Amino acid sequence: MQEESILEKTGESYGYLKEFVNLQFEYLRLEIAERSGKVLSSLITVAVIGLIALIVLLFVSLTAAIFLGAAIGSYTGGFLLISAFYALTGIVVYYFRKPLIASPIVSLVIKEFFD
Fold first, then answer.
1. How many angstroms separate the Cα of 77 from the Cα of each of 60, 68, 69, 86, 91?
2. Which CA distances in Å does 115 have to 36, 48, 83, 98, 101?
3. How confident is the model at residue 6 (pLDDT cuts 50, 70, 90)?
4. Which of 82, 88, 54 is nearest to 68 (CA)?
5. Residues 16, 90: contact at Cβ < 8 Å?
6. 42 near 108, Cβ under 8 Å?
7. Widest CA span of the chain, in angstroms?
8. How many CB atoms lie within 10 A of CB 109?
9. Beta-carbon neighbour count of residue 78 at 10 Å?
10. Pick from 91, 92, 71, 95: which is nearest to 81 by CA?
C-alpha cells in the first residue's frame, strides 16, 4: 500500500512538473513575441518618420538649389552647390557612422527588447 502511494505521488508530481515546463515554455514564447513586436514596431515607426523627413529634405533641397541658382545666376551652379553640400555631409557621416548611426540603433533595439 505504501509503495502504491509513493508511485501515485511520483506520477502526480511528474504531471505537475510536465505542466509547469509546458507553461514556462509557452510564457517564454509569448514574451519573445511581445518583445519582438515592440522592436519591430519601433523600427517601422523610425522608418516611416525617416521617409517623411527624407521627402521634406528633398523639397527643401530643391527650393534651396533654385534659390541659390537664382542668387548666383546659374541654376546648374545652385544644384551643384547643394550636391557638393550633400557629398561633404555623406563623407562626414561615413567617417562617423559608428557613433552617429550604429550605436543609437543598437541601443534602441536593446532598450526596446529588454524594457
1. 17, 8, 6, 14, 21
2. 11, 22, 41, 23, 21
3. low
4. 82
5. no
6. yes
7. 106
8. 14
9. 20
10. 71
- Integer Cα distance of 43 and 38 in angstroms: 9
Residues for the chain: how many in total? 115
Phi, psi of 45 (to 5 degrees): -60, -45
Place of cell 517564454: 28
* Cβ count near 39 (within 10 Å): 17
Which pLDDT tens digit goes with each residue over 73-101?
999 999 999 999 999 999 998 998 888 78
The helix (H) or strand (E) run that includes residue 13 is helix 2-72
- The residue whose grid cell reads 563623407 is 91
Say how many CA atoms lie within 13 Å of 59 toward its Cβ.
Answer: 5
Q: List, for residues 26-73, the tens digit of each pLDDT value.
A: 999 988 888 888 888 888 998 999 999 999 999 999 999 999 999 999
